[in-house]
TrEMBL record:
The lineage of its organism: Bacteria, Pseudomonadati, Pseudomonadota, Alphaproteobacteria, Hyphomicrobiales. It holds the Pfam family MUG113. This is GIY-YIG nuclease family protein. It comes from the Bacteria.
Length: 164
């Protein structure tokens, strides 16, 4: 049985990913267990590239600050198009800024939770679309991408057309 890396009063803000792929920045009591849980069957196991141990009560704020610092390279809620070194540097700087300067990510959380109930046929179509994307997004990110495309298309269609 795997034991948590740190006690429950502490959490680790981690960078998990493959050497050349996107990095996930999150927090957990046991980053190695989290990496194993995130790894997909038949694919190379994800690695914990680095982590910073923080008070569990501060973990969410520090994670948000690290996400905000990398916002220009965001691929989804917690995945970023950065190297393992860039990800680990961002989490170290976020913790340092949080504790030394009292820094916080500006504004409300970027995402609100939405849990729609979808018909099986729509879920099947979502899965087919996801499978065609590279890298393959998770279901939430795929749904978000499709919603954004649909809203952009509606917005574009409703704009007045220029006359020749």
């Amino acid at each position: 049985m795997t034991r948590p890396l740190v006690e429950r009063e502490y959490s680790a803000i981690y960078a998990i990913g493959n050497d050349g792929g996107p990095q996930k920045i999150g927090f957990s009591y046991a980053p190695n267990v989290r990496a194993a849980a995130l790894s997909e069957r038949g694919k190379p196991r994800l690695k914990v590239h680095g982590f910073v141990v923080v008070a569990t009560s501060d973990a969410r704020q520090i994670e948000r600050l690290a996400h905000w610092m990398l916002r220009d390279k965001a691929l989804g809620e917690e995945r970023f198009a950065v190297t393992p070194d860039e990800a680990t540097t961002a989490i170290a700087k976020a913790a340092e800024r949080f504790y030394d300067e009292g820094a916080r990510a500006p504004g409300p959380p970027r995402h609100r939770h939405l849990a729609p109930t979808l018909p099986q046929e729509l879920l099947r179509r979502l899965e087919e679309w996801r499978a065609q994307q590279r890298p393959i997004p998770n279901k939430s990110e795929a749904a978000r991408m499709l919603i954004e495309m649909a809203l952009d298309a509606v917005e574009k269609a409703s704009q007045p057309r220029e006359k020749d």
